[in-house]
Specification:
Porin, 2 helices
C-alpha cells in the first residue's frame, strides 16, 4: 500500500510539474481539456479500486493476543457530484466493497479454535465534501472527507451460532468517517481521478458470544473497522 501511494504521488507530482513547466516555457497557453467540465451543476461517474481492511481491537484487560492478517479486496461504485461552489463539491459514492481479514487468537492448539476467517461484503454509502484547489492546466488536486454507512452482507449477525461453533459475528450496520486526497486529471474526453482514502469505523461491531467468559470475545471491549481505499474514478 505504501508503494502504491508513493506511485500515485510521484505520478501526480510529475504531471503537475510538466503542466507548470509547459506553461512557463511557452508564450501561448497549453491546450486546456474539458475547460467547462467543472461548471456543471451535477455530473456523474464511476470508480474502480481496491482496499485493505483492518480491525482496531481494544481489549478489556491485557492478556490474550489477537492478530489480524489483512488481504487485498476490491471496490466498485458510482459517483454523483453536486457543485456547491467553485471549490467545494458534495459527493455521493454508493458502491460495493469486498474484503477479508483473518483473526488468530493465541492460547489455542488447534486451527479450528485459534483461526477465524472474516469475509466482508459491504454495500457502502459515503457522503463526502470535496475541497479542490485552483486548477493548474489540466491538473487539480483535492482533499475530501465525510461520513459513510455500511451494510455488511457477510456479518453473520442473524446466525444463532457463535465462536463455539466456529463462527465470528459482526453487526450488519456500521458507520465510519473518511478522509482522503486525490488529483483530477483532465483528459481530452474524460476526467480521471486517482485517490487514496482512510476509512475509520465509529462503533463497536462485535456481536459477543453467548458465554460472557468466551475465550474469543470475552476480553474484547471494542472492535471497529479501519481501512485504506485506493480508487480510480472516471467522470
Amino acid at each position: 500500500m505504501k508503494k502504491i501511494f508513493l506511485y500515485i504521488l510521484i505520478f501526480s507530482a510529475t504531471f503537475c510539474k510538466a503542466q507548470i513547466f509547459t506553461k512557463s516555457m511557452f508564450a501561448k497557453k497549453p491546450i486546456i481539456n474539458l475547460e467547462n467540465f467543472d461548471k456543471q451543476r451535477v455530473h456523474f461517474g464511476f470508480y474502480l479500486g481496491f482496499n485493505n481492511y483492518d480491525f482496531k481491537i481494544d481489549k478489556k484487560i491485557d492478556g490474550q493476543d489477537i492478530f489480524v492478517k489483512r488481504s487485498m479486496g476490491f471496490n466498485v461504485g458510482l459517483i454523483t457530484n453536486l457543485r456547491l461552489t467553485d471549490y467545494i463539491d458534495l459527493r455521493f459514492e454508493p458502491g460495493l466493497q469486498y474484503g477479508q481479514r483473518d483473526l488468530t487468537f493465541s492460547g489455542f492448539a488447534e486451527k479450528k479454535d485459534y483461526f477465524r476467517e472474516v469475509k466482508s461484503t459491504y454495500i457502502h454509502f459515503p457522503l463526502l465534501l470535496k475541497f479542490s484547489s485552483k486548477r493548474i492546466g489540466n491538473v487539480r488536486p483535492y482533499v475530501l472527507g465525510g461520513v459513510s454507512a455500511d451494510l455488511n452482507l457477510s456479518s453473520n449477525s442473524d446466525s444463532p451460532d457463535d465462536n463455539s461453533a466456529g463462527r465470528f459475528r459482526l453487526l450488519k450496520n456500521t458507520s465510519n468517517y473518511e478522509l482522503g486526497l486525490g488529483i483530477d486529471l483532465y483528459m481530452e474526453y474524460f476526467k480521471f481521478s486517482p485517490s487514496i482514502r482512510g476509512v475509520f469505523g465509529t462503533k463497536n461491531e462485535l456481536i459477543p458470544d453467548a458465554d460472557p467468559n468466551s475465550p474469543w470475545t470475552g476480553n474484547i471491549a471494542n472492535i471497529a473497522t479501519r481501512g485504506i481505499f485506493v480508487n480510480f474514478a472516471f467522470h
